[in-house]
Amino acid sequence: MDTKDSSAVDQLSVEELAAKLEPDLLPKHVAIIMDGNGRWAELRSLPRIAGHREGIKSVREMITVCLELGIHALTVYAFSQENWNRPIQEISSLMGLLEYYLSTERAKLIEQGVRLRTIGRLDSLPASALQWVRAAEQETAHLDRLHLTVALSYGGRAEIVDAVRELLQEAEDGKLQPDDVDEARIQQYLYTHDLPDPDLLIRTSGETRISNFLLWQVAYTELYFTPTLWPDFRRRELLLALLEYQRRERRFGRVLSTISP
Fold first, then answer.
1. What is the maximum alpha-carbon separation in the chain?
2. Does the first or last residue of the chain, that is N or C, have fewer Cβ atoms within 10 Å of its Cβ?
């Protein structure tokens, strides 16, 4: 989007932005790196956990907008493997916040028809948090209006390592030959094996890197970076990202001819 077009769009109301969306050009799967919670809190002289609490409101709004627009899948990066290196007190607060979210939002997710699933090396989670996660997954397993995937204790490289381990185990069991291995076979062993790859990946807070998120899956994903901190990323910001997405020409390595035959 050029500067002139961007400036014009920035002046539009939320309702006008929504009216500009073309349903046939919307992504089916949106992934989000929810970055900037700590900085949001620090700018307000608040403890970092306050930013994470505020960020829950943004997650709620993303779910609502996706449901309204008919976006089928939403995947959010909540806690990476690298995040275990944070101070113990912050990790404990984050795990407590996870349990709070699942306990307070589960009924709403069921009411909205949202299936919750988690991906990552979940055995690293504290027993109490893992219990809440498994209960929420079980209670929403039959729902399909929106597939909400939360990446917890997740790393893209670790996901690929886990897939390779399963492939090697199949080979050791005599169920797999080298010629059987192709992209489709590897896809079957990824955490997201039953989801389409993301069409759009959004990262908030001004950082412009993938940070070990869905490394295999984002091979042809459109990337959208915004300086907006995650707690401030709400309906308007998502609509702007979707408008930018629908302007892009997705070629998947092909050259699309503009010359009529």
1. 65
2. C
What's the token pair of residue 31?
């992934």
The answer to whether position 183 is within a domain reads no
- pLDDT tens, residue by residue, 41-63: 999 999 999 999 999 999 999 99
The CA distance from 171 to 185, in Å, is 13
Within-domain flag for 255: no
Tally Cβ neighbours within 10 Å of residue 98.
Answer: 24
Which residues are known catalytic residues? 35, 83
Listed in sequence order, the DSSP H helices in the chain are 3-10, 14-20, 37-43, 48-69, 88-112, 127-140, 156-172, 183-187, 235-247
Whole-prediction pTM: 0.92
Give CA–CA dist 201/244, Å, rounded. Answer: 12
* Structural domain contains residue 48: yes
